[in-house]
Amino acid sequence: MKKGKLFIISGPSGTGKGTICKKLLETEPNLRLSVSVTTRAPRQGEVDGREYHFISAERYLQLLEEGGLLEHASVYGAAMYGTPREPVIDWLQQGMDVILEIDVQGAFQVRENYPDCVLIFILPPSMEELEHRILGRGSETAETMAARLGEAQREIDLSERYDYRVVNEDLEQAVAEVRQIMNDERTEGGL
Ligand code: 5GP
Q1: Prediction pTM value
Q2: Ligand 1 and 82: CB distance under 6 A
Q3: CATH number for the domain harbouring residue 50
Q4: Does a structural domain hold residue 1?
Q5: 69 CA → ligand 1 middle, Å
């Protein structure tokens, strides 16, 4: 059986990549989204097992030691994130396409091991607009806000090494662009 294709979607938080992924999942029955583990606390409205598996630092380190993470990264200094290996590998073997919604450090780690994966970066229309969107969430202190914006700029700089960059100015258009990229890449063959 043909194996699935692995897509990595990154972009500064607040750029809308989560919404884009959700929309793609609604229309692509063969697509699965990997749920990461994280040591950060849930935000309001986030559900354990849906946005993330929220785990302790001890459990995270245990998973890491066991080789249970496909990639991992420490984001904004404190919180740690990782992609559970098993579900992703199983889905790909079963012929399903998989999205990892992860940061640039993680994306480059995955590309080392799976050079066939496709890296897509979602850009905000501008830094001003990004700041505006993150503030709108109301979950940031001045300190974490500054850290997020600094990280966003670093990620945008590194995104030149991605296969594709999509600007999310208009949501529907950005979704259509990513869907087109996926269709084109799929016809080129799975992992
Ligand atoms: P947030 O805390 O806003 O949900 O996510 C912060 C950043 O961590 C985002 O850039 C997000 O893509 C990234 N991230 C989420 N899960 C993972 C993961 O499993 N691995 C890596 N490397 N980054 C992740």
Answers
A1: 0.91
A2: yes
A3: 3.40.50.300
A4: no
A5: 14
